[in-house]
Amino acid sequence: MIDLRNEILRKPLGMELEGTDIEADRENILIGAFEEEKMLGCCMLVKVAILALS
Hints:
Layout: H1 2-10, H2 19-25, E1 29-35, E2 38-45, E3 47-49, E4 52-53
Antiparallel strand pairs: 1-2, 3-4
């Protein structure tokens, strides 16, 4: 998921994932939508408060 995020979402904007981004991801929930072996999309849920995700 990290490679996909970097190649598809970050690089076209001239951005690269850094160690701090990857460290922060340990607390996030990553969800992927698949059709057989093809990934159709992904979503990242980020904790913004004790009982709230964004």
